[in-house]
Design goal:
Length: 1019
């Protein structure tokens, strides 16, 4: 058998709400056994120390806490449906989600995949309590019960297309489910499988059965292989593992808990009673599993036994093991059973044992078994080549092998052979995400920690859960961030925070969870993908050492600046990079300014592109157009470098005596003055009242004097030459020759040209364009206005300081009322943290970055994060605790209040009064265009009907509530909704479901539609 990897797991067992607590309990040899909770059944009514007929000899067992808690809103399940669902379905939904996250997979990414779901389950006591109460059977009760639905719920809510089945082989159910999952993986039916087991004890029926069959321990505790063993103690719980073929797990960089080497399943056949175990069949299933695993019995270090603590069962299991291991003189195989700590979890017993074995191999220690200190001498363990785990067993450094047995009442036996994960499984050489493999140096210089949730309350809860877990971690913040980017995404509210240190990260998460203003700043709720416009800053934004800190901190930026420097150096006669890093003021000389700004713009834009920020709109101010042109594939980097270097060098050779003057006036206002000064022209038009004049200094002085007399504001710019003016003419011919050599084509991305003042329409940015570019005015205002009309959600400044985004916002504030400005380099000291914040800001707005590029390879190491923290605010349970018929005259006490309504789907009188009050409250927020009586009647009827069908309080329903996305409606609920509305609105003509479906987007849409129908009927 090819190896199958356990890559993720989650569980909840008595005394252990999660895998960490489960492992701690096992290592302490502790137990989670106690009194039967009053929520289940009144134990005193069914308890008889002598085991009288119809009674159990124990009032204790292993029970999980809060089995009624369920985060129905997370799965968009209405309260009414949640209340009808078997709690085993609810527990499995949450457990499966957390196990997938533990595997390093965002569960939403499995949607549509052929992922299989295999669930072991042997009890359906919820159905016994509800499907026999015929008057209260509803559509929700029907779909809320049944073995098949335990698996199908997981497949449905995660949108999984692979095999989905529930398995009932009694106590071996969940290990048989694992066996089937492995076979499905190896046959190619699925590439990922979720194998699980669940058991919730709702009635005393099995307690009574075990007692009457002589199998029940009076103290409710399993004592496997102990001299004190006297029967079974019931337990409950849920567990799930995520399985993948080992080669696939390694290829995808998933850390592996343990490897399943082989599994086998068989049956007792006709033996000494249908409920009696069969030694020879157990021996055969062990032999088959060893054979499939390719191991000898002597290689197995320990076995997690079925070990229920019944005298006969323990004896037969030890003899079966002994038949294969009796020759292990001097090195007996260790044997233990988790049932001593949590009880016999029946349908979940196999998964409980599997998780214990996987964790043991992962931690390289096998916990001691509770009750093992008083070994049953009749078992003659030493003679069988076996020993009980009385103390923890440290596993050797070499691969360790463990076995796991699970035997079902009725004769279906299962055994699995597991091995510790190979060392290479947790250290992948490279990880591919979104089909992109990074190349060269990567890393922002700071990680970005992400968390998403369907609501702000859920986000706060999960930020605290992550903060608590991270506080205890001793790994790099970068690897935690990278792992969060892979797993903690996909929900409506997106939180993102740059982080470089785990202590700082934990504190920041905790602060954000408790500070609403901070949380609002760090959280987005995008309606769609952002429409990004890149604005490339031009000359005048330069300063010594610009982006030097970013270069030192960000390998990604460093890589692209080095690329630009290598392309420029043959043409500049020196290194632009070295100039920037040294802080040389020579950067203000034109021959260096222009290539340096080009290099910075190219490196920043290329870094964004590597991160998956694909711009839709491009605009460059003056020399900023060169980097924009490279991004738009007008020409390659090398040609652009040649051209910008020549441009700067030629301009610097021009004689001094030119300058530029910013004026608060329009070009039309300045035209009369310019007519008298042929050596001055309009250098730039940055807005309606933002004109820059460029030309001879003396002539500019005369114009400035005239403007001062007219009280028009002016400002002299610190420049070396009169750029974009008639004084540039002497360089045009030589530059044109170089431009012809460099070439230039039609941009492949929309470029809003500051030469043309508009979007280029299939026009080449060729030699003619770039030659004109030198002396033509920069029409930024016109180009930017047209860009804003395209509706970008984000203006991203690509340059050494934010200049253009502020100018663009002043042009048309209303165009970006809901948009954002993003500065990649917000100030002169900006580094990797600021670049990471820009990426975080874009992610919050809906961008899906290619996170691999944000981290160096050594930080792309999977880390298991705290799983999703579900809400326990909503509780769904059956009616009152079960009492004996002799004590009360009834089998089940009826529910009261909300619980009864959730079960029956009908409102009680006091609830109807509340519904009316809730409807009035909801009407207050409805559109007030029509205040006639029919409007109130319609709104009241719709809200009452929606609330009744979904089991919501009327106050929870608003006109903006989406029936499917927010309230969890489905086709069955729509049919009931139609009937309820027609009952409430007399005179309404008959409707079909097809009539309603197009109007069911929101409650408000439905109300408006029905208003018109009611109005037409009245008319």
């Amino acid at each position: 058998m090819r190896p199958v990897a356990i890559v993720g797991l989650d569980c909840r067992f008595p005394g252990a709400p999660d895998p960490g607590a489960y492992w701690d309990m096992l290592m302490r040899s502790d137990e989670g056994v106690g009194k039967v909770p009053g929520q289940r059944w009144n134990a005193q009514d069914f308890h008889s120390p002598t085991g009288a007929e119809g009674h159990s000899n124990t009032s204790e067992g292993g029970f999980i806490t809060d089995p009624d808690a369920f985060d129905n809103e997370f799965f968009t399940i209405s309260p009414r449906e949640a209340a009808a669902m078997d709690p085993q379905q609810r527990l499995l939904l949450q457990c499966a989600w957390r196990a997938v996250e533990d595997a390093g997979i965002a569960p939403q990414k499995l949607a549509g995949s052929p992922t299989g779901v295999f669930v072991g389950i042997m009890g359906n006591e919820w159905a016994q309590l509800h499907l026999t109460d015929y008057a209260r059977v509803t559509a929700q009760v029907g779909s809320g019960n049944g073995y098949c639905m335990t698996a199908n719920r997981v497949s449905y809510h995660l949108d999984l297309k692979g095999p989905s089945l529930a398995v009932d082989t009694a106590c071996s159910s969940s290990l048989v489910a694992v066996h089937l999952a492995c076979n499905a993986l190896l046959s190619g039916e699925c590439d990922t499988a979720i194998a699980a087991g669940v058991n919730v004890a709702l009635t005393p029926a099995l307690n009574i059965f075990y007692t009457q069959a002589g199998l029940s321990a009076p103290d409710g505790r399993c004592k496997p292989f102990s001299a004190e063993a006297d029967g079974i103690g019931r337990g409950e719980g849920v567990g799930a593992v995520v399985l993948r073929r080992l080669e696939d797990a390694v290829a995808d960089g998933q850390p592996v808990y343990a490897v399943i080497r082989g599994t086998a399943v068989n049956q007792d056949g006709r033996s000494n009673g249908i409920t009696a175990p069969n030694r020879w069949s157990q021996q055969d299933v062990l032999t088959a599993a060893y054979r499939r695993a390719g191991v000898e019995p002597s290689e197995v270090t320990f076995t997690e036994a079925h070990g229920t603590g019944t005298v006969l069962g323990d004896m037969i299991e030890i003899k079966a093991l002994g038949q294969l291991h009796a020759d292990r003189t001097g090195r007996p195989m260790a044997v233990g059973s988790v049932k001593g700590s949590i009880g016999h979890t029946e349908g979940a017993a196999g998964i409980a044992g599997l998780i214990k074995v996987a964790l043991s191999l992962h931690h390289r220690v096998v916990p001691a078994s509770r009750h093992a200190t008083k070994e049953n001498p009749a078992l003659k363990l030493a003679k069988q080549g076996l020993r009980l785990l009385k103390t923890p067993l440290r596993l050797q450094s070499k691969p360790a092998i463990g076995g796991l047995s699970s035997f079902g009442m009725g004769g279906t036996n299962a055994h699995a052979v597991l091995e510790s994960a190979p060392a290479y499984a947790a250290r992948p050489e490279a990880v591919v995400v979104d089909g992109e493999r990074t190349s060269g140096r990567t890393g922002l210089g700071s990680g970005v920690f992400t968390v998403s949730a369907p609501s702000l309350d859920a986000l706060r809860r999960n930020l605290l859960a992550q903060a608590d877990a991270i506080q205890r971690r001793r790994v790099s913040a970068g690897s935690l961030c990278w792992s969060s980017n892979r797993v903690k995404t996909g929900h409506r509210y997106r939180f993102a925070l740059p982080a470089q240190d785990t202590g700082e990260l934990a504190g920041a998460l905790r602060e954000a969870a408790t500070d609403d203003d901070l949380l609002a700043r760090l959280t987005g709720n995008p309606a769609g993908r952002p429409l990004v416009a890149l604005l490339f800053t031009g000359q005048g934004s330069q300063y010594p050492a610009m982006t030097a800190r970013l270069y030192r901190e960000s390998p990604l930026y460093r890589r692209f600046l080095d690329e630009a420097d290598a392309a420029l150096t043959p043409h500049t006669g020196g290194s632009v990079r070295d100039l920037l890093l040294s802080g040389d003021p020579e950067v203000h000389r034109t021959r260096w300014t222009q290539p340096a700004l080009f290099a910075v713009g190219y490196a920043l834009a290329s870094s964004l592109a590597e991160l998956g920020v694909r711009p839709t709109l491009l605009l460059g101010h003056s020399v900023g157009e060169y980097a924009a042109a490279v991004l738009a594939e007008v020409f390659p980097l090398e040609q652009a470098a040649q051209l910008i270097a020549a441009r700067g060098a030629l301009m610097e050779r021009l004689p001094e005596g030119g300058g530029m003057l910013a004026v608060r006036a329009t070009p039309r206002d300045l035209a009369p003055l310019l007519e008298r000064e042929p050596l001055v022209g309009v250098g730039a038009v940055n807005g309606p009242q933002a004109t820059v004049l460029s030309g001879e200094l003396a002539a500019l002085g005369r114009i400035d004097d005239a403007l001062q007399k007219r009280r028009i504001r002016t400002r002299k710019l610190a420049v070396s030459h009169a750029f974009h003016s008639p004084l540039m003419e002497p360089v045009l011919e030589e530059f044109a020759g170089i431009a012809e050599e460099a070439g230039g084509g039609v941009p492949k991305l929309p470029v809003y040209s500051t030469v043309r003042g508009r979007l280029l329409e299939a026009e080449p940015m060729d030699a003619k364009y770039w030659t004109e570019h030198i002396s033509a005015p920069v029409l930024f205002g016109e180009a930017a206005m047209q860009l804003l009309e395209a509706g970008p959600t984000h203006l991203v400044e690509v340059g050494p300081r934010p200049v253009l985004t502020q100018m663009a916002r002043r042009l048309r504030p209303s165009a970006l009322a809901g948009g954002q400005s993003v500065a990649l380099v917000p100030d002169e000291q900006a580094g990797g943290h600021q670049l990471a914040e820009a990426v975080a800001q874009l992610y919050r707005s809906g961008l899906e970055p290619w996170w691999n590029a944000a981290y160096p390879e050594e930080e792309r190491a999977p880390q298991r994060l705290a799983p999703y923290a579900f809400s326990d605010a909503h509780r769904f349970w059956t009616r009152g605790p079960i009492r004996s018929a002799t004590a009360t005259g009834v089998g089940v006490l009826p529910a009261s209040g909300a619980a009864a309504r959730e079960q029956s789907g009908e409102a009680e009188p006091e609830t109807r009064a509340l519904s009316v009050a809730g409807t009035v409250e909801a009407l207050a927020v409805l559109p007030s265009a029509r205040e006639s009586a029919p409007v109130d009647v319609v709104a009241s009827a719709v809200i009452e009907a929606v609330a009744g069908v979904g089991g919501y309080a009327p106050q929870e329903i608003s006109p903006g509530s989406l029936l499917f996305e927010d309230l969890g409606f489905d086709s069955v609920m729509v049919m009931e909704l139609k009937d309820r509305i027609q009952e409430r609105l007399t005179g309404l003509e008959a409707m079909s479901v097809q009539d309603l479906l197009p109007r069911l987007s929101s409650v408000g849409d439905l109300i408006d539609y029905l208003r018109d129908r009611v109005g037409a009927a009245v008319a």
